[in-house]
Write a structure and sequence with these properties.
The chain has three domains: 6-62, no CATH class; 70-222, Single-stranded right-handed beta-helix, Pectin lyase-like (Pectate Lyase C-like, 3 Solenoid), CATH 2.160.20; 260-430, Single-stranded right-handed beta-helix, Pectin lyase-like (Pectate Lyase C-like, 3 Solenoid). It is 14% helix and 46% strand. It is built from five helices and 29 strands. It has helices at residues 6-25, 30-37, 47-62, 81-92, 168-171; strands at residues 38-39, 42-43, 70-73, 98-102, 107-109, 113-116, 123-127, 130-132, 145-150, 155-158, 162-164, 188-193, 196-206, 213-216, 219-229, 240-243, 246-256, 262-264, 268-278, 284-289, 295-309, 315-320, 324-340, 344-350, 365-378, 382-387, 394-403, 409-413, 415-424. A hairpin with a 2-residue loop joins strand 1 (38-39) and strand 2 (42-43). The longest helix has 20 residues, at 6-25. It is found in: Secreted, Cell wall.
Length: 430
């Protein structure tokens, strides 16, 4: 007797589920239940229809390739950097979809490491335990990353575990904390470089050396359910940094750091951030752009539904004088501010330098920006501050349905704006 194939079993199962679901809706009513299968003395679903449906399902399922996933425990090759690299090589070279797991209830100290592609098939990394960085700064030898995935397409990273940068040893030696120290760049905890079709979700990332998560030159990215935390005094610890990346969605995440909760910089387009909780930190920023007289391009950015608490800025666009390019087609909407300094701010005269920044004859163009349904309280007198460039004034700025308190005010310089609905504080005159 020939054993039934997997496709045969699946086709029968699907047909049974369809019939049972219909019966379930009529459960407890005998006559109604009988009418599901019979109309008088004849079947309600003719036998030839069932046969036809089965034949179509069988053909479809028989043509599908059912692939088993290879699962590799990170301990399989030794709990050290060399072993971890071998474990990665195993999943990356697998001809079928592969999973690399970091077991729960275990703690791993991981030295700077790069997991590189391309890989033969899709890869899932499940971090269920805890991964932490060593405290010896000399181990980096100038590297700007701690954990990096580079050139890996069809990658998923998640698992609910912890990534701990042990950043305190870096913060206390930062020139922003220790004025006598030279200004040296610190590593980013988790870097994705040149990845396509990327999913990052359900991770707790804390106390990064500098930036917590960075997306560089990536596309088609889905980021969700991240918890990113560091002290509000920790320097340059951006939560999520987006650069040269297109088509990225960041959602349902809580970010509390010492710098921008989300920073979006040059080369980024089609960026969506939604359902974000931010604070402490420096708010949600586009920029900085145009430093060192550079060209910058950012477009089609939407921040929809966010709550900011106790941040030093709210939703901000910041550009240096002397730059070129644009930041355009930007929407900030459905945002609640709680005790936030500078809730709405455009700063085309940004200067994060020990030396004074002099007025220059060019600037990154800022245009077509909508602020809609933004409410709450401001910790600064100026709730709306539009400080735009004399050389390249910002334009197409729309303020719609804003309420940040009657005790606040607006300030504007070289800004071309319009108002829709009620706006509190009243927009300033140009």
């Amino acid at each position: 007797m020939m054993m039934p194939s997997l496709a045969h079993k699946l086709a029968c199962l699907i047909l049974c589920i369809l019939l049972l679901s219909k019966l379930h809706r009529c459960f407890g009513e005998e006559e109604a239940a009988r009418s599901v299968l019979f109309e008088g003395d004849q079947p309600a679903i003719p036998l030839h229809d069932l046969r036809s449906a089965y034949a179509k399902l069988y053909q479809l399922l028989a043509g599908m390739k059912v692939q088993a996933q290879e699962v590799i425990n990170i301990d399989a090759y030794g709990a050290n950097s060399q072993g971890y690299q071998k474990a990665w090589n195993a999943v990356c070279s697998s001809s079928t979809p592969a999973i690399l797991t970091v077991p729960e209830k275990k703690n791993y100290v991981l030295q700077p490491i790069a997991f590189s592609g391309p890989c033969k098939s899709s890869v899932t990394v499940m971090i269920k335990g805890s991964v932490e960085a060593p405290v010896d700064r000399s181990l980096w030898a100038g590297k700007r990353y701690w954990i990096m995935f580079s050139g890996v397409d069809n990658l998923s990273v998640g698992g609910g575990g912890v990534i701990n940068g042990n950043g305190n040893v870096w913060w206390q030696n930062s020139c922003k904390i220790k004025k006598s120290s030279p200004c040296v760049d610190a590593p980013t905890a988790l870097t994705f470089n040149g990845c396509k079709n990327l999913r990052v979700e359900n991770l707790r990332i804390q106390n990064s050396q500098q930036i917590h998560v960075s997306f560089q030159s990536c596309s088609d990215v889905d980021v969700s359910h991240l918890s990113i935390t560091a002290p509000g005094t920790s320097p340059n610890t951006d939560g999520i940094h987006v650069t040269e990346t297109q088509s990225i969605t960041i959602s349902d995440s809580v970010i509390a750091t010492g710098d921008d909760c989300i920073s979006i910089v040059s080369g980024s387009a089609n960026v969506m951030a939604k359902n974000i909780v931010c604070g402490p930190g420096h708010g949600i920023s586009i920029g900085s752009l145009g430093s060192g007289n550079s060209q910058a391009r950012v477009s089609d950015v939407t921040v929809d539904t966010a709550r900011l608490s106790g941040t030093t800025n709210g939703v901000r666009i910041k550009t240096w004088q002397g730059g070129s390019g644009y930041a355009k087609n930007i929407v900030f909407k459905n945002i609640v501010m709680q005790n936030v300094k500078n809730p709405i701010i455009i700063d085309q005269n940004y200067c994060d330098s020990n030396k004074p920044c002099h007025e220059q004859g060019s600037a990154v163009e800022v245009g077509n920006v909508l602020y809609k349904n933004i409410t709450g309280t401001s910790a600064s007198e100026d709730a709306i501050a539009l400080s735009c460039s004399k050389a390249t004034p910002c334009h197409g700025i729309v303020l719609q349905d804003i309420n940040l308190g009657h005790s606040t005010q607006s300030s504007c310089e070289n800004a071309k704006w319009s108002k829709l609905g009620s706006v509190v504080p009243s927009p300033c005159t140009n």
